[in-house]
Design a protein that fits this description.
It contains 5 helices and 4 strands; from the N terminus they run H-H-E-H-E-H-E-E-H. The protein is an alpha+beta fold and 193 residues long. Helix 2 packs across helix 4.
Length: 193
């Protein structure tokens, strides 16, 4: 080989070595970095699309949530109200004191309370609750109490009345009264009667 050819071969060898080194140390890492950036871009694009979809549906979700909350409130309003039951108990106690009879026990029927919770009443339909009251007192006071109870706005119908006589003396008789009451009757309405 001639000197010129040797120079060309050395030059080609140097250029080949430089190309190989550039490929290994510059192009290879840049290609790996490009692949990494491309995969991160695809991942961020998917996250951005998910975020945009969420933002578009969030108003629908919030509206649906408001509708469900309003429905829940509506359904709860249809259930028996603890305050209404307490108003009935308070009204019965006041009525008993008015006629000088002593309330020994007032109990709504547990079965009725459970039934009221299971059933949703029709709109505007009244709810009824079976109640029992045990009073002690004289015959005339108990009679006036029962009369006022029957005339009150909470009274629907008498289920049972049982008189337990006591021995003659200072112990008054007891009266067990079971009746059906209508919920939503306030003490003010009963006091007006």
């Amino acid at each position: 080989m001639s000197a010129t050819q040797k120079r060309y071969a050395a030059l080609i060898g140097c250029i080949g070595t430089v190309c190989l080194l550039c490929s290994l140390f510059v192009i290879g890492p840049l290609d790996r970095e490009r692949i990494k950036v491309k995969s991160e871009t695809a991942l961020l694009t998917a996250k951005l699309l998910d975020y945009q979809t969420t933002m578009l549906t969030i108003n629908t979700y919030l509206e649906r949530r408001r509708e469900l909350e309003n429905r829940r409130i509506s359904l709860l309003a249809g259930l028996y109200n603890r305050d209404e039951v307490l108003e009935i108990v308070g009204a019965l106690t006041d009525m008993a004191e008015k006629h000088h009879v002593r309330v020994k026990e007032i109990s709504p029927s547990v079965e009725e309370m459970l039934r009221l919770n299971r059933e949703t009443p029709a709109d505007g339909a009244p709810q009824f609750l079976e109640m029992a009251i045990r009073i002690a007192g004289g015959f005339s006071g108990a009679g006036m109490f029962i009369r006022d109870l029957e005339q009150s706005t909470l009274f629907v119908r008498l289920q049972n009345l049982r008189v337990i006589e006591r021995e003659r003396g200072y112990v008054p008789a007891e009266y067990n009264i079971r009746f059906e009451a209508i919920l939503g009757t306030s003490e003010k309405e009963m006091a007006a009667k």
